[in-house]
Specification:
Length: 757
Amino acid sequence: HAATSNDPTAAARRVLTKAATDALRFASLPNDAAPSSQARAEANQTADDLRACVTLSESLENFASQKLAQRAAAGARCASTKAPPERRRRVYRCLLEHPPQQSSDEVNGAAGAALDLAKRFDDSRGWDRLRALDRRGAEDALQDKAPGSFLLRPQQGSSGDAAVAISFVVEGNQVQHAIIRVSENDGGLEYRSGRLGPASSLWLVLEEISERLGGAGLDLTEAATTWPSEALDQHLPPDVGGDLDDLGGHWASSASLPGIYWSAGERRKRIVDVLACDELRKQLRDLGALSPPLERRASALRKEILRQLTPPLQDLHHGISDGRRHRSPAPLRRGSPVASPPTSPPRQKPIAAEDGHVLAQLLHPRSGVSLRAPRTAVGFLTPSVNAVVSACFAPDEAAQWLAQHAHATDEEDAARKLDAWKGLRILVDAPSHEPQLRYVDAWECEPVGDDEDELCIEGTVAIGRNYYQRPQPTKGDLSRLLDVDEWVSSVIRNAHVDVDDDDLTTPWPPQPTSIDVDSSYKRHVRGFLLRNAWFRRHGLKRRFSASVRVDLEALETMAGALSPGAAEAAQAAQRAPPVDDAFAVLRLRHARPKGSQAPPPLSEKLRTRDSCIAKRRGKVHVGGGATWGAAAAFRFALPDEALPPQNSVRLPTRGPPTVAYVCVYRREKHALAALGVPAQETYLGDVEVPLDNLTEDQPLTQWLPLNGGKGQHWFLRVRVTLAFVLCELADAPASVSPMPTPDERPKLVSSFSDFGD
């Protein structure tokens, strides 16, 4: 057209307009079937036209307006996705790594002046790395890149001399930055970076920087000789290799079969398609273009994916991940045979169906197995301070019991069964001079350390029967660029949940004296149990754990208010001890059955392993001037076995904690303090805070009286908050820090529940 037309520029503009419009309908998603022969021919022709327009842009000045150039770039991006399935994912990866530049005006100021100088002296090599990014944007773009990766960007806060900034990755996956200044001197260019230079070209100063860095240096292998800011090709996708002519015809169609629930492999593919479609649509919108077929597909596919990700409770076992790659995207029909789901941690092995009943009998107070309470030093005032750890039993005695009750053929077989339970963290070694085992409840609560954040897991921590860590980045190049796991986590977190199954949080085996009352708190926990089941169904290791924080905001005595007369009230206020001398021991536990005797109060010298001392976190001012500001946090897992498949084994459990138990003390200076006698601890009282009305968006805040104290009447202002923290199942750490040596005088207890309720 350009060679035969009287107006080559107008002819080229018409070719570009038609090619750009036609190319918008060629958008394909990463996991679509191979295109037909007709679609291949049309895509080839359109691609040739767009390539011709790029060539014409070098000989015909201003033949394409900015709007038309952006539309052509949008068409080129859509046409580039019409590639073989093996190459299409690489195409999408390049599109995501090289989004279109919004405008050439973005590279201005000092960077624009440097670019103009380089163009004037025809110094093009290396400038293809120039990106319109700020410092943080450059760090995000270089995240998880190999050492030596780099890019050029405008220098922030500079509008004087011509200069650009270079951001590069060094060993340790750290991103560092430097400034490259450009100037004209004696009819030539001078590039300087700190003490490096002067160099006559950008490429030479990049080589100097690479040599100075040592190690991997800078990755200069992909530098090209193209300019980054021309009117048309600044928006075009990078060349990903290969031609559209090599499509061939040996890719069979992979259309989904009719069904209700897809397999896990097909779900994963379609999630990638949805997110890739969203990113491509965003790039097209940035270029002022719209692809109607892509818009229709995105809407339908997103609606179906959301339904597949969050099925109702009764359909959880359909479409569950079997841990294998699916060769075809055929969905699973309701009622079709499904492979048994894998246990959540990769280290777990299946246990026998009767193991739950065997453990329940073994842990019964009248089983004949002695349950002991080892003590471990926690040291505060003297090294002899002890704390109750938990009820434990000797492995030899447990092995004899298993053999005598025909749960094992002999004691050696019983010992192997105990070792298998230890491998699943159903039993763990307790700190003792003699071998002792402790049963781990799946809902076991752990106090959060003073130097830890209750809303963020640092390292690998044991919660209940599993180890957890912070969520790891998504694996796979395209999945990582699209943040597939993060998107799935967000969808599951925000999904509507309706769970009415009371068996999810009730104790097992059921106790005849226990009364299970349904509450908003338990319904909220059930909702996140279902979300964890969705993670497990999708084959992800991510889980939600629960975090409960108890803030002791204020402590007041009411003795003055109860005394007659103002004079007596003033005297009572003077006799009231300062709040600074108060401290509290907190624990999350289970509600006591009605009529049962209250357990002895916890203290700093004698407390359970799942309790902690409240830490001072700054005073909180409330009405009346009362202050305190102590707080403690706890976390517990939401175990997979609470929402099991139909053939899962249930193990003894008390369910989630339902009461926050607070015991308050104050320290009084001893009369013989000058002789080194430590301060005395006066018991002010305790209080049980039911968690029935606690939800994630509705904390509990109330004044409560302390019970059991002597003398003055104390009231405590408590604030309890609930949060669900996203974490990830992890393998056991290579080494575990040993626990302190216990006391040699174990105390016999009459009931295992004495230390669990």
